[in-house]
Design brief:
Structural class: alpha/beta
Shape: elongated
Family: Belongs to the pyrroline-5-carboxylate reductase family.
Distance between the termini: 31 Å
Organism: Clonostachys byssicola
Largest sheet: 8 strands, mixed
Keywords: NADP, Oxidoreductase
InterPro entries: 6-PGluconate_DH-like_C_sf, NAD(P)-bd_dom_sf, P5C_Rdtase_cat_N, P5CR_dimer, Pyrroline-COOH_reductase
Protein name: Pyrroline-5-carboxylate reductase
Length: about 290
């Protein structure tokens, strides 16, 4: 893709994350690098169509919502295509007559969990290498997280940087930077990195939920406990990127004979640390296998 003017953007499968990213680029934080002239979103049902139309009512002059039966039309009219459908639907989407032809020459951004750039190439070529012979696929695989809804996502991207043009890399980075932070990582470490971004938050929320339950059991109202825990946790987490190693922080907090060391020892007795490690490694294993399933 060599277009440098305002972009037409298609979101194929405009669910929660697709909607968050679309909202980000329609009202970008960085208004100087790129502009969205038009956004075309596709969804599976009439109910979802109404939801997305309502979501973007203030941008109605630039937004068009279609049913998934018109995916080919959406891609044909777009410069950039965001593939945000469920991974299990990928073959069904690409096998629609005309979809692969429509994708040629476009920048493909995929946020389908576990789907490698090699699998995207296979899908786009129909498994016969035809598209690869004609033109290298301009594809960027990314894992954002749900914090994109409040522009606080950490989005990890990977691509064949020998094939991806400089302009397309800039477009991909710009898209995800409108909903938070973004960085490129090698695909060799993408799966474990992606689950840290995509899954770690849910694991930490499980821990937060347990803390809140304990506070409620001891007589603290849940809204008050939530405020206490979240403000404390957010402040503590910000100390880590500032250069404080988690284990050092634990040592500082856990004074001799105090409450924190008792709590930490109980967590160690229950195997919480190894459970978190095993959970993330299991998620990474699943991510690696999804392209083959």
């Amino acid at each position: 893709m060599t277009k440098t003017g305002p972009l037409t953007f298609a979101v194929i499968g405009c669910g929660t994350l697709g909607t968050a990213i679309a909202r980000g680029i329609l009202d970008p934080l960085d208004k100087d690098s790129f502009q969205i002239k038009r956004l075309i979103a596709t969804v599976g049902t009439e109910h979802s169509k109404s939801r997305v139309e309502t979501e973007f009512s203030e941008h109605s002059s630039r937004v068009q919502v279609l049913l998934a039966t018109e995916n080919v039309r959406a891609v044909q009219e777009a410069d950039v295509v965001l593939l945000s459908a469920k991974p299990v639907k990928r073959q069904e989407i690409f096998d629609v007559p005309g979809f692969r032809d429509a994708l040629r020459g476009k920048l493909l951004l995929s946020i389908m969990a576990g789907i490698s750039t090699k699998e995207l190439q296979r899908l786009a070529s129909g498994g016969d290498g035809d598209l690869e012979r004609q033109q290298p696929l301009q594809a960027v695989r990314t894992m954002p997280n749900i914090a994109a809804k409040i522009r606080e996502a950490m989005s990890l991207s990977t691509a064949n940087l020998d094939m991806l043009t400089t302009e397309n890399k800039k477009i991909a980075s710009w898209v995800y930077q409108q909903v938070g932070q973004q960085k490129f990582v090698p695909e060799s470490t993408f799966d474990i990195s992606a689950v840290l971004v995509g899954c770690a938050g849910s694991l930490l929320l499980l821990a937060v939920d347990g803390l809140l339950d304990a506070a409620v059991a001891e007589g603290v109202k849940r809204p008050e406990a939530t405020e206490m825990v979240m403000n404390s946790a957010l402040g503590m987490m910000k100390l880590v990127p500032a250069g404080n190693h988690p284990s050092v922080l634990r040592e500082v907090i856990a004074s001799p004979g105090g409450c924190s060391i008792r709590a930490l020892l109980e967590l160690e007795r229950l195997g919480v640390r190894s459970a978190f490690t095993a959970a993330i490694m299991k998620a990474a294993e699943r991510s690696k296998g999804m392209s083959n399933s």
